[in-house]
């Protein structure tokens, strides 16, 4: 089992080309103002220096590989920083954004194709372009795409996304669900609640939309990875099951108890608590949890393997999460 590569499925790349493309465009200032309100001034004061210190590791493949070596990580699945979503953009701009992001991510990963796999972007605000964006990502040699938990006015249960889910299933593309921004807005604008609470909330809401709406019934075999261990949903799935069992409105959209769908999804291991990680493995299955670090941000872990080891899983489960599951997902046709 020690020959299985260690694979980190939650690592980010920063794409200055994308930010240069959107600089000064109508809508950007408003989107940044919303992000500032959601985070609050104290968080923004910390975020600026934190990101600047990490830019080299997110842009220089040599520094990335050196950091991976130090962590004992053999392979990273690299996704664009969620700050590159730009779901405010009009259709023409959105097309330029996803094309440039896909191509730039592929170029970054080409520096070490045996160690770096990439994900592209999809303009969720324009569902009619989602399939085209996914196909473009795959044409660049990327493993799939990264999406947020929602777009303005749209949840992932929106029927307009059905062609996208169908195409992702048909191609075997990986879809990495990584929220950016929480619709609880200014209620979370202190103490970095925008991230520590907002991200798990958004993960739970997005996954609940996919489950309760029947998306996972209609598209079995979808390779969807939820960041941050799926947020609050896996540890509170009993409440969802109870609602599905006792209320006709809760049970109208999906065919099976919500907890059963956890074994159709994938989750990264980034939960920051060994007991929660053990519970995630219990409810989702050891074959559905993948190593994740959120490289190189401060809300991630510098030692993803050590964090996994702290959960004291059986050896077979440990090695499955360390890399066996991700290897099967990314490198098996």
Mean pLDDT: 97
The H-level CATH homologous superfamily, spelled out, is Metal-dependent hydrolases
Number of folding domains?
A: 1
Largest sheet: number of strands, sense, barrel closure? 8 strands, parallel
Low-confidence runs (pLDDT<50, min 5 residues)? Answer: none
Q: What is the level-2 CATH architecture name?
A: Alpha-Beta Barrel
Question: Helix coverage percent of residues?
Answer: 40-55%
How does the helix and strand content classify structurally?
alpha/beta
The CATH class: Alpha Beta
**Distance between the ends:** 21 Å
Strand percentage lies at: 5-15%
The name of the CATH topology is TIM Barrel
Number of helices, counting only DSSP H or I runs of 4 residues or more? 15
Compute the CA-based radius of gyration.
19 Å
Order of helices and strands: EHHHHEHEHEEEHEHHHEHHEHEHH
Number of strands: 10
- Overall outline: globular
Across the major sheet, the strand order is 1-2-3-4-7-8-9-10
Describe this structure in words.
Helix 6 links the parallel strand 3 (116-121) and strand 4 (144-147). This protein is of the alpha/beta class. The mean pLDDT is 97. Strands 1-2-3-4-7-8-9-10 form an 8-stranded parallel sheet. It is 48% helix and 12% strand. The chain has a single domain, classed as Metal-dependent hydrolases (TIM Barrel, Alpha-Beta Barrel).
């Amino acid at each position: 089992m020690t020959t299985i590569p260690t694979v980190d499925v939650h690592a980010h790349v920063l794409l200055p080309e994308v930010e240069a493309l959107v600089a000064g465009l109508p809508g950007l200032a408003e989107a940044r103002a919303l992000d500032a309100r959601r985070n609050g001034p104290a968080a923004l004061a910390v975020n600026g220096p934190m990101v600047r210190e990490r830019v080299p590791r997110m842009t220089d493949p040599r520094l990335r590989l050196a950091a991976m070596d130090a962590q004992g990580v053999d392979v990273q699945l690299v996704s664009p920083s969620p700050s590159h979503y730009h779901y405010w953009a009009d259709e023409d701009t959105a097309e330029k954004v996803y094309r440039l992001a896909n191509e730039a991510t592929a170029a970054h990963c080409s520096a070490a194709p045996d160690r770096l796999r990439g994900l592209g972007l999809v303009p969720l605000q324009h569902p009619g372009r989602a399939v085209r964006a996914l196909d473009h990502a795959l044409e660049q040699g990327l493993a799939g795409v990264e999406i947020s938990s929602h777009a303005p006015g749209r949840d992932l249960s929106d029927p307009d996304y059905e062609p996208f889910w169908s195409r992702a299933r048909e191609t075997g593309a990986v879809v990495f669900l990584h929220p950016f921004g929480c619709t609880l807005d200014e209620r979370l604008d202190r103490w970095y609640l925008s991230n520590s609470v907002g991200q798990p909330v958004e993960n739970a809401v997005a996954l609940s939309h996919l489950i309760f709406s029947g998306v996972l019934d209609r598209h079995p075999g979808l390779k969807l990875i939820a960041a941050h261990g799926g947020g609050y949903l896996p540890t509170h799935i009993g409440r969802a099951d109870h609602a599905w069992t006792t209320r006709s409105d809760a049970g109208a959209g999906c065919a099976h108890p919500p907890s059963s769908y956890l074994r159709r999804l994938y989750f990264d291991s980034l939960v920051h608590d060994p007991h929660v990680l053990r519970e995630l493995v219990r409810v989702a299955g050891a074959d559905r949890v993948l190593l994740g670090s959120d490289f190189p941000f401060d809300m991630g872990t510098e030692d993803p393997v050590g964090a996994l080891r702290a959960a004291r899983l059986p050896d077979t489960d440990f090695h499955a999460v360390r890399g066996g599951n991700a290897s099967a997902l990314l490198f098996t046709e």
